Amino acid sequence: MNLSSIFGQPRATSMLRSALERRRIHHAWLFAGPEGVGKEAAARAFAASLLCRAGGGEPVVEACGTCPSCQKLDRGVHPDLVEILPEAEAVARKRIAREDLPKAPSRELKIDQIRKLQASLSLAPLEGPRRVVVMIGADTLNAPAQNAFLKTLEEPPTGTHIVLLADTADALLPTTRSRCVRVPFAPLPLELVAERVAEQTGDGLERARLRAALAGGSLGAALRIDGPALESRGRILEAIEALDPADLRPLLRLAEELGGKGREESELALDVVALFYRDAALGAEGVSDDALANQDQAALVRAAAARGAEDALRRHRLALRAKAAIGRHAMGRLAFERMLLGFVMPEEA
User: Fold this and answer.
1) What is the predicted pLDDT for the residue at 236?
2) Are residues 31 and 170 both part of a single domain?
3) At CA 68, angle to CA 67 and CA 72, rounded to 5?
4) Checking DSSP bridges between strand 81-84 and strand 181-184, what pairing results, if any?
5) 154 and 10 fall within a common domain
6) Among 128, 153, 184, residue at a domain's last position
7) Which ranges form a coiled coil (predicted)?
8) How many domains does the chain have?
């Protein structure tokens, strides 16, 4: 993998190429932007440029892809590329077994992992003059772990380059951010995501566009949206639109159904709801059906739009608020109940 293979992030790749061309390569980098837009792939491509042997010991702008170093990187076995990630992510990627952990896998990067990394960095690189550390989910570092890492981040061992990957850079302490060169990663253009989804899944372009819109420009998130979730979308939206404040029993049943799933499924359901009411707000302002993400639900969108843009935007905000609550570990059922009650009883929102 090299930098030319990274698509949809011209600003980020231009910054990295410029640093490599001028041989002014900072020791600490912060790749910041939404999940699934290419940060991890770019970090590996950048690492390849630093570790490739085609430059005779110097970094190259584009890794050759054929030298022993590049081949080891492609196979994921290069000893001088160190990847650190939260236990829960490592379990999800099958890098470690859940049974090997003494307790539930942590979603945070822990201070013990930082200390172990620091101990390993005290040793020289194994195959060349440089080593690259890629910290996946750096924004999950808690404050003690970040404080323990500051000295290493400011003055790493000679030849060590550290790349922090963060979906939410502001979750990092200012002292951590200030020690890094920040490389911004933007959401990918929806049409580009849709094309890639169609290529990789065989979906038709309309369905692929819906995935792209639900994922907010994240290719990774778009590819994770499964078929059943999309198939149940129409039924869920119809059930929401049919809710009646005079009888809350259907509302409570729907909240139980939607909130009783895993976090990722609940968040996807809320993305579906938020996107639907964004479409309704556009429809209320006279936007044509062709511009809607939910083109297959155009009649339902028009019915929701008939209540006006203000109502649609209010519901959109409530859906985003519910998603944020679940992200803060609120109970899914309660988050959905509060949202749905806000839909049918505006004074309760």
Assistant:
1) 92
2) yes
3) 120
4) unpaired
5) yes
6) 184
7) none
8) 2
Within this chain, do residues 169 and 231 fall inside the same structural domain, yes or no? no
pLDDT for the residue 204: 86
Q: Residues, the chain, total?
A: 349
Count of C-beta atoms within a 10 Å radius of residue 272: 24
On whether residue 281 sits in a domain, the answer given is yes
CATH of the domain at 259: 1.20.272
Burial of 262: CB neighbours in 10 Å, binned 0-12, 13-18, 19+: exposed
Rounded-to-10 torsion of CA 34, 198, 6, 327: 10
Residue by residue, what is the 3-state secondary structure of the chain?
CCHHHCCCCHHHHHHHHHHHHHCCCCCEEEEECCCCCCHHHHHHHHHHHHHCHHHCCCCCCCCCCCCHHHHHHHHCCCCCEEEECCHHHHHHCCCCCHHHCCCCCCCCCCHHHHHHHHHHHCCCCCCCCCEEEEECCHHHCCHHHHHHHHHHHHCCCCCEEEEEEECCHHHCCHHHHCCCEEEECCCCCHHHHHHHHHHHHCCCHHHHHHHHHHHCCCHHHHHHCCHHHHHCHHHHHHHHHCCECCECHHHHHHHHHHHCCCHHHHHHHHHHHHHHHHHHHHHHCCCCHHHCCCHHHHHHHHHHHCCCHHHHHHHHHHHHHHHHHHHCCCCHHHHHHHHHHHHHCHHHC
Residues 257 and 144 in one domain: no
**Both 101 and 152 in a single domain?**
yes
pLDDT at position 223: 87
Nearest to 311 by CA among 269, 268, 270, 276: 276
Full domain range(s) for residue 17: 3-184
pLDDT along the chain (349 residues), means of 10: 90 96 94 92 96 92 94 94 94 88 89 95 92 96 93 94 94 94 92 90 85 84 78 89 94 92 85 91 88 86 94 95 86 94 81
In a domain, residue 268? The reply is yes
Q: Are residues 166 and 49 in the same domain?
A: yes
- Based on the domain organization, do 75 and 22 belong to the same domain? yes
Is the residue at 192 inside a domain? no
R_g (Cα) of the chain, nearest Å: 23
